[in-house]
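Protocol step 6 of 9: fold each sequence in the batch and record its structure tokens directly after the sequence line. For illustration, a two-sequence batch is reproduced in full.

Sequence one:
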Amino acid sequence: MPQLLPLRLGARRPGLINPGLERIRTAAAALGHPETAVPAFRIAGTNGKGSTAAMLDAILGAHGLRTGLYTSPHLVRIEERIRLAGRDVDAHALEAAVERLDAFPNLSFFETMTLAAWLIFRQARLDAAILEVGLGGRWDATSIAPCAVAALTNIGTDHARWLGNDRRKVASEKAAALKGAMIAVLGPGVDRELLPRTGGFHAVDAAELVSLEPGAKGAVTVDWGDGPLDLPLPLSGAHQRDNLHLALAMAHAAVDLGILESLDPGAVRRGLRAVRWPARLSTHTVGGRTVLLDGAHNREAAASLARHLEGCDPPYNLLFSCLDDKPVEAMAALLMPVVRDVAVFPLDSERAMPLDRLQRAFPAARTASGPLEALTLLPDPVVAAGSLRVAGALLEYALKSDGIKR
């Protein structure tokens, strides 16, 4: 993925994962605890965090709240990680925030960006900050913020190198992000049997706050107590229904806490119409070619993508790469039956999946040195998946050549 980093971030390796909260707590205290300045909405889970966060941000913003959104990773520009009122943070504002953190050289890249976001949010005097958990929950940098509403999208098996393969242990790590929240919400995709039974927190199901049923032509029917309402599904894919359900439930929780006066149907509609979240089954023009981009980067996301592609006529052709900690064989087994031709290439990353393993996972695949060359090897239509880094590389090229809307 392109790394257009401010110079002061260059020495903080983006891929370095260093568990522990002592470093960021010490720095936050020295800076006057910026993480306490704005009511926080924290979203943890394996998949769907960014989509849920983007929808919640749009819904709250459409109700007149001044919102900040913190997500990761970015696709093309680092400024994408911090948004104010739906717009990427100004590069100079980000540089100024990062400069203040030079005094804390032991912070990781993610910790630095998290603290920079809080400094920017405090200065902007926001009404709400939506935070996407980066990894797990218990040791994630976002977890030091007191939380008004916390939510869990689902529990999968991503990041096994750090979280392990035991789904109950993974559930415990991710559910830790809910503890201490004034209201904790479980998304429809959460397997309730996996939740730890320690009694450390009480969580409500999204369905207890908002009901949601599939509607016709990509719409959904919802009810938060004022009668049924038809709403558009702002992002493609049936799995986005669960993310929308959770976002609406979190917005309802904001009403319960007095952060919002009420949920207005017109404002909800306006907010959802404004949602833009690239690389989640979004279509872009890359070098004159129409490409469907999806950030499916683990087994569960690959299964959702396969369901979306199943039965497409003509079938899609797959452009694929991933990082070396991903279950590429399981992902390939899900995707190969629903696509025609495949082209693979190694990512430009020290954590890239080796090309020979990609070839073994996709035995009939064509090979290339990079995503643009791989694109030339495939006929239309093309879907690119396996990592947000794949999407980022193609979007960077589209931005330079054809232009994209973000």
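Sequence two, same batch, same settings:
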Amino acid sequence: MRILITGGTGLIGRSLCQHWLAQGYELYVWSRTPERVKRLCGDAVHAVGELHELDQVKLDAVINLAGAPIADRPWTQARRKLLRDSRIALTERLVSWISTLEHKPQVLISGSAVGWYGDGGEQLLTENSPVQSPDFATQLCADWEAAAQAAEPLGVRVVLVRTGLVLTSKGGFLARLLPLFRLGLGGKQGSGQQWMPWVHLDDEVALIDHVLHQPEARGAYNACAPQPVRNQAFAKALGQHVKRPAIMHAPGFVLKLMLGEMAGLLLGGQHIQPERTVHIGFEFKYANLKSALAAL
């Protein structure tokens, strides 16, 4: 199987490369820094600097994971433009290129996030739920998904993977939290009652592989474990994992002063169930937080 991956040098992309290289797949990674691809993704991965290099390659699938980190810096006007360009403009460019191919890939699996729903409060959400509270993050995800869905009229099956907080020892948001928790400086954020949808990295990779091989899978799927937890419970579990108390409290008003609108990522939440994900036969290896943390 021949697969093109955007965002292949990222956390999820690197793990996908390892998973599919072990299966003997032929992998191409489109990157702004192609010289880094083999070092990060594996010597057998083909680095692509420009899409036209693949005009004559018959691809089976495209995995679109590219996007600048949403929570790394405050959402200034310049940062918002970068977040949109790295997701929406890139996806539009990708779909435009696919439209020119004589042999189009069978499937486009495109990244998205649970931020699509907005702050859902206590409302139980599934893939069929509407947006709960529109903000910058929800519009970002909605436009990202719409750009990917433009491949459907081209005869390409489109799958949208709405990912929660990814748990892994390889980086991501846990890499920022663990040092604080190991020092006993961890704790709840805001009220601590907001829901935190999460997924273990192994399950994220397995789900993308699963929908790749399910011809009937199309549309949105929640990449979130079936047992979400509240922020306070997450902090307690992480404190127990590193054998430190997790009693430090970050008040909501302080987070808002520090982060502005971006504080909504921490103070809001989604009580999500992966209804469509389970319906297509996917089984989570790590369904509860305790087992996921123990596996890190």
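Proceed to step 7 once all outputs are recorded. Observation for sequence two: The chain has a mean pLDDT of 94.
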